[in-house]
Write a structure and sequence with these properties.
The chain is mostly helical. Helix content is about 45%, strand content about 5%. It has a two-stranded antiparallel ribbon with strand order 1-4.
């Protein structure tokens, strides 16, 4: 049966639809995908050898092209510090060439899905009008990767590379966009948020650190972030914070500083997933921009309509209920339990694999020289 791909559109018009979103096939598949990669990267460094399929390599090549465009479109001279309008020129090029990029990425048998993937790709890099970027755009890129997994462009053996090669490359591109065009943080919570721009690399990055010699108490340590930022997604985020912000870590990254008192990475990891649900997935101001198509649908998971819409190439993800777990740190509001992820492709069982928002915008800055003294946590952070 031939699958009918569609142009995805926004559907969450108000907060009253959040319960329907939480029960939807899209939510089920997104959370399943995030947890699948989380298990795959457990205990692994980015530099550890891992297989990279031709489809993974094609995705990285596409991201290389996007970074090259940044070099070709320099920021313009303008009086305002934030929101360089040259970003709109870069973004327009992405809109114009997204379809061609996808045709180069997708295998011939999957190219019809380009009509559906195009908007996910475009919306993964910020907002052209507001010249901003935030966790909602990062979520859209996760949805893009999830769709590729559902299409079996990515298979079981690709999941480590998706987290440690593809997503790492994506972070490098969006950070270059942030620094070059001084993108505003979208929906920043100031010192009471996790990070101005990202969330997922903290979740997957804490999984990488399970079983390592590093401790959560070392989160504020600038020297460690500088040394191991290429090997661990979590430390790459800390390194970028120090690059962009001034002042003591406990002042500009209060939530991360509080997390550094959690005794072990396993608890950090489970707590970050709960926090991601509460502060990203279930917050209407973030997910109101989420796109729904024929693969990621708002239809209730497991319903007859959902089964009918998934009757073609996309392979639905499945989950199982986890045992009760202690919450290592409390998110802003309680979130319902998230099931343990199942395969993103037929026969893939991830359980077989063992292995901040800173102060307000005025504190964001251009890269500064390292000052290791800033990174030393106080007694409160290491207790």
């Amino acid at each position: 049966m031939e699958h009918n791909y569609v142009v995805p559109t926004k559907a969450l018009k108000d907060a009253s639809q959040i319960p329907a979103w939480e029960k939807s096939s899209a939510y089920y598949n997104i959370t399943g995908f995030l947890q699948t990669v989380n298990v795959a990267v457990k205990g692994r460094m980015c530099s550890d050898p891992h297989p990279k399929s031709k489809n993974v390599e094609a995705t990285v090549k596409m991201l290389d092209t996007l970074e090259q465009w940044i070099d070709e479109i320099p920021p313009v001279n303008q009086p305002q510090r934030f929101g360089n309008t040259a970003f709109r020129t870069w973004f327009t090029r992405l809109e114009e060439r997204a379809e061609a990029l996808l045709q180069q990425l997708l295998p011939i048998s999957k190219r019809e899905a380009g009509i559906e993937l195009r908007n996910y790709l475009i919306d993964s890099f910020g907002n052209k009008t507001r010249i901003d970027y935030g966790s909602g755009h990062e979520l859209t890129f996760a949805a893009f990767l999830c769709c590729l997994a559902m299409l079996e462009v990515y298979v079981e053996s690709d999941m480590v590379a998706v987290g440690l090669t593809v997503f790492k490359r994506y972070l490098e591109v969006v950070r270059k966009l942030q620094c070059t065009y001084m993108l505003e943080p979208a929906g920043s919570h100031g010192v009471w948020g996790l990070d101005d721009y990202q969330f997922i690399p903290y979740y997957w990055g804490s999984s990488q650190l399970m079983g390592s010699s590093f401790k959560p108490s070392q989160i504020p340590d600038r020297a460690i972030a500088d040394t191991y930022g290429e090997d661990y997604l979590f430390f790459s985020c800390i390194r970028f914070i120090y690059k962009m912000k001034t002042g003591p870590f406990f002042e500009h990254s209060r939530y991360l500083f509080d997390i550094s008192s959690v005794p072990e990475w396993r608890k950090v990891n489970s707590g970050l997933l709960k926090m991601y649900q509460a502060e990203v997935l279930l917050k209407h101001p973030v997910v109101q921009h989420f796109l729904f198509g024929s693969m990621l649908t708002l239809k209730q998971h497991g319903s007859a309509a959902d089964a009918a819409s998934a009757a073609a190439p996309p392979a639905p993800l499945r989950t199982e209920s986890p045992p009760p777990a202690e919450d290592p740190f409390k998110p802003t509001r309680a979130a319902p339990g998230v099931p343990i992820a199942g395969p993103v492709a037929p026969g893939f069982d991830p359980r077989k694999h063992r292995g901040t928002n800173g102060p307000a915008r005025g504190c964001l800055r251009r890269p500064q020289p390292a000052n290791p003294a800033e990174s030393q946590p106080s007694d409160a952070g290491s207790a």
